[in-house]
Amino acid sequence: MKIAATVLDREEIEARVKVLGQQITEDYQGKKLVLIGILNGAFIFLADLAREIQLAVEIDFIRVASYGKAAASSGSVVLRKEPDLDLVGKHVLLVEDIIDSGLTMAWLREYFLTKQQVASVKTCALIDKKERRATDVQTDYVGFNVEQGFLVGYGLDYAQNYRNLPKVCALEL
Q1: Were 137 and a residue from 28, 30, 102, 107 both cysteine, which residue would form a disulfide, CB within 3.0 to 4.6 Å?
Q2: Hey, which residues are catalytic here?
């Protein structure tokens, strides 16, 4: 595996995260907002985004698996860690590093609406990549639309490697 090119540099990411934080702040005024990070990939994006939201927010995490060590989704979603907070009646913003096939996000939206009885569920993804989209799931807050390529860095990984890069790069597979 080798990094082919930088797709998003650190400055581009920082500027866009600030804008997303402002939009979310405006949209959730007067609401009980809970940011739910999807582990492992979203932890870096969530930390930066949370600091840009000028509201009192609760933060929790959920872990699901659909990729394992492969470069493509297995198509099935397995819940590995449930949120710890009581979410009934709260507004949930699912924070994800990348929405690719959309299968995980569609499963998560259904999970929170039916199992957690939240007031609303919206999604925020650093990257919305529709190259392999298998559902009609929509992303409410999008950092960047990227057409294709296997991406790593800023939380995105390949077999648990490259998450720590401060930028997003295309990986040569």
Answers
A1: 102
A2: 100
